[in-house]
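QA checklist item 7 of 12: single-chain prediction sanity check.
[x] sequence parsed
[x] length recorded as 201
[x] structure emitted
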Amino acid sequence: MKFLKTTLIVCVLLLNILLVRPAWADAGKFIKTPEYTEVTQAIADLKNPEKTTDLAPEAIQQKLADLRFQKYVLETAEERSVCRNDTGKTLGIYTKSKKAVLPTISFLGAGQATDDDIECMGIFLPAGSKVASGSAEGFADSVVAKFVPGTQLTATADPETGVIDFNAPGSGFFKTGEIDWAIPTLTQAEVEAQVPNAPVD
């Protein structure tokens, strides 16, 4: 009888160790990334009145909300970033495999989502693209909308205006020279004519 009780206790303890996430476990797998440090520093800078003198209070609050969301994603995400294209057109995206140093551009077809074995790092926006959270007039140059690791991104487009909208705030819009990613000079028509080649689920 003692052997049975001991065996039962050992089994319960083993199951507890295997199935229950310990309280001391890491908060998220992306808190040691450079993006986490950048987001945390940007939040601290926005809270410092000396560094925000040129911003309106509404702009500060919006930026803080976006940064807090990004920090939340970095702290809680368990999976790599995935991009879903609900724009109705082919979309240029930047993806990175685990072994790659820099992301590369590929093209995601309408209605497709990237494979969760690669990291979707950003969206390519040709010159003239209009983004709800970026440039309502359209970007003068081709840019990259960059997103923090762990973001589960969905891109949509207004069928009448063509304005692209993202379900999550990005960490910024970058043109050639502001980021070390290769940014092509493709037009929107050239992007739409590309054969989708992004890794998909």
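[x] summary fact logged: Residues 30-76 form one domain.
[ ] second reviewer sign-off
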